[in-house]
């Protein structure tokens, strides 16, 4: 009996000793803190990613109403401030001629036979207006801005909307009466701010909108030197057109346009045909 009691007592002592060791063993606080930090970081990354995806989805959903369709051919009709005018297409002028446009910037009417590079080109200097209007006829949106009013972060933000985007072009427009003016064929929207949400709505509604521009499928790649060199484009002319300027109902009718080649035009009745060589008349 005594032996049994000793054995039991011994076991109890061993168990108590083990419990004491376990109780006195320091907790791995470093590991615990590291695990908590990793979990917190993972949660933060997940939360940020989720918020970004949610914000993107919200933006896309908000812009969905501006997508053209058979039942909504011109979504820009719902954008406050958009001005619309009907212009006949395919009326061209020579590189030495100017047009007495009825709007500034213009968004339709006679224009130079060579179209500008309008596949996401951000021109650092103002470009000849008669060329830029031709890009609108091809389905592009032209973002013009007043260089005295749009600078720094606003200019960077505006450029990012255009740079590298198909059928988009941007250039300064000296003397513009607003900070920003958006043009597509027959449409214009002038804004006081380069961050106005209507910029995205206008672009979504009208860039390559098959229901609103004349030359479906026309190229936005510039012809290059001898036609339109987007690295050295013809400069903007600030002076008002003279008495010899082509009126809004003038210009000559184009017969064809071939990307990379000099477009042809039909001379006005009673005048000799323009020479084909070097004639930018399409």
Explain what you see.
By secondary structure, the chain is α/β, with parallel strands linked by helices. The chain folds into two domains: 43 residues; 180 residues, no CATH class. The protein contains five helices and ten strands. Strands 1-8-7-5-6-4 form a six-stranded mixed beta sheet. The chain has a four-stranded mixed beta sheet with strand order 3-2-9-10. The C terminus is likely disordered.
Write the layout of secondary structure elements.
Layout: H1 2-24, H2 29-63, E1 83-84, E2 91-93, E3 111-112, E4 119-122, H3 129-137, E5 141-145, H4 152-162, E6 168-172, E7 180-184, E8 187-191, H5 198-206, E9 252-256, E10 264-266
Parallel strand pairs: 2-3, 4-6, 5-6
Antiparallel strand pairs: 1-8, 2-9, 5-7, 7-8, 9-10
Characteristic terms for this protein:
elongated; 282 residues; four-stranded mixed sheet; six-stranded mixed sheet; DUF3105; transmembrane; DUF3105 domain-containing protein; 5 helices; transmembrane helix; alpha/beta
The strand order across the widest sheet is 1-8-7-5-6-4
Give the C-alpha Rg. Answer: 33 Å
How far the N terminus sits from the C terminus, by CA atoms, comes to 119 Å
| Mean pLDDT reading | 86
SSE succession: HHEEEEHEHEEEHEE
Helix content: 25-40%
Low-confidence stretches: 264-282
Structural class: alpha/beta
Strand composition percent: 5-15%
Could you give the count of β-strands? Answer: 10
Q: Shape, please?
A: elongated
Major β-sheet, in short?
Answer: 6 strands, mixed
Keywords: Membrane, Transmembrane, Transmembrane helix
Protein name: DUF3105 domain-containing protein
Pfam families: DUF3105
InterPro entries: DUF3105 (IPR021454)
């Amino acid at each position: 009996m005594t032996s049994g009691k000793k054995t039991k007592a011994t076991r109890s002592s061993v168990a108590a000793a083990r419990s004491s060791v376990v109780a006195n063993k320091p907790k791995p606080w470093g590991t615990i803190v590291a695990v908590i930090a990793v979990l917190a970081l993972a949660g933060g990354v997940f939360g940020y990613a989720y918020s970004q995806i949610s914000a993107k989805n919200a933006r896309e959903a908000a812009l969905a109403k501006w997508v053209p369709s058979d039942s909504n051919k011109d979504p820009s009709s719902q954008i406050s401030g958009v001005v619309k005018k009907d212009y006949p297409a395919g009326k061209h002028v020579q590189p030495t001629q100017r047009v007495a446009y009825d709007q500034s910037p213009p968004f339709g009417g006679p224009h130079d036979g060579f179209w500008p590079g309008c596949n996401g080109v951000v021109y650092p200097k103002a470009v000849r207006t008669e060329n830029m209007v031709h890009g609108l006829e091809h389905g592009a949106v032209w973002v013009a801005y007043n260089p005295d009013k749009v600078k720094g972060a606003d200019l960077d933000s505006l450029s990012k909307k255009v740079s590298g985007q198909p059928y988009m072009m941007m250039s300064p427009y000296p003397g513009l009466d607003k900070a920003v003016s958006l043009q597509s064929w027959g449409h214009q929207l002038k804004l006081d701010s380069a961050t106005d949400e209507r910029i995205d709505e206008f672009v979504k509604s009208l860039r390559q909108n098959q229901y609103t521009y004349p030359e479906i499928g026309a190229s936005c790649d510039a012809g290059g030197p001898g036609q339109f060199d987007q690295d050295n484009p013809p400069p903007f002319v600030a002076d008002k057109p003279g008495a010899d300027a082509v009126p809004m109902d003038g210009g000559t009718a184009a017969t064809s346009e071939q990307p990379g080649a000099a477009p042809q035009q039909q001379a006005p009745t009673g005048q000799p045909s323009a020479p084909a060589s070097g004639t930018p008349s399409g």
